[in-house]
Each structure stands twice: as C-alpha cells, then as structure tokens.
Design brief:
The mean pLDDT is about 95. The protein has about 140 residues and is mainly alpha-helical. Helices cover about 75% and strands about 0% of the residues. The protein has two domains: about 90 residues, no CATH class; about 45 residues. This is Multidrug transporter.
Length: about 140
C-alpha cells in the first residue's frame, strides 16, 4: 500500500475515535477520560506489538539510535495531546472539539516548513488558510 492508501485508512479509522470516546466519557456514569485513554492506548500497544511480531521489526536494536530522542519527544507530545483531546471530548461537543483538534495539521505543516525545511507553495498556503476558515465555521457556536 502506498502512503495515500495508508492516509485514507488512517482517516477512516480515526474518524470514529472522537464519537466513540464521547459516548464513553460523557454523561452520568461516564468512564473517566484518563481511564479511556489508558485502555484505548493499551489496545494500540497490543496491536503495535502484533504488527511488530508479524513484520519482524525489532525494537531493542533501535533503542540506542540517537534519533530515539525524537521518538520519545513525540511520545510525550502524543501523551499530552491525547489526554487533553479525550478530556475535551468528555466535556465538549464532538462537532467543536474534533475540528479544533484537527488544526494540528496546520501547526504540523508550519513545523515542517520551519524545522524540516519543507517547501512552501501558494497552493499549500491557500489550503491551510481554507482549513483554518473551515474550522472556525464548523466549530463556531
């Protein structure tokens, strides 16, 4: 599968995360968002270990790689982002929380340009601008 197919699969699967987490973490007798995050991410860990087992990708030989510091930093950012996202879903509406959260791609794009020297084009800037307008329109009250 190429990166576009993987991206579409990710989009399809991740589209259900917010509504399902909202159902689990909101209302009377709700599961605390931290517990939901732990369980959901435990499923992620188990699934990832299964894929590692199937593909034969090793773990130990990569632990000493100097680039592992980026993986650890990404993990810390992921932890903060997911915990905050699940908490927001527990107390807010999916139709507002999800579009605001989705703005991460705008910031990620900016980081890619600034830190990774990725090219900026008028088309990309226009797309990011439209995305920002879309989020304001969708998430606005």
């Amino acid at each position: 599968m190429n990166y576009i197919a993987w991206s579409v699969l990710a989009l399809a699967a991740y589209s259900f995360v917010a509504p399902l987490m909202r159902l689990a973490t909101a209302g009377e007798g709700a599961i605390p968002s931290t517990v939901a995050a732990f369980v959901a991410n435990s499923v992620l860990v188990v699934a990832t270990l299964a894929v590692i087992g199937l593909t034969g990708d090793g773990i130990v030989e990569h632990l000493a790689d100097p680039r592992m510091r980026y993986v650890l930093a990404a993990g810390a950012c992921l932890a903060v982002g997911i915990l905050a996202y699940y908490r927001a879903l527990a107390v807010g509406r999916v139709s507002i929380v999800a579009p605001i959260f989705a703005m991460f791609f705008v910031l990620s794009s900016a980081v890619g340009v600034v830190l990774l020297d990725e090219p900026v084009t008028a088309r990309k800037l226009l797309g990011v601008g439209f995305a920002m307008v879309a989020v304001v329109l969708v998430a606005g009250e």
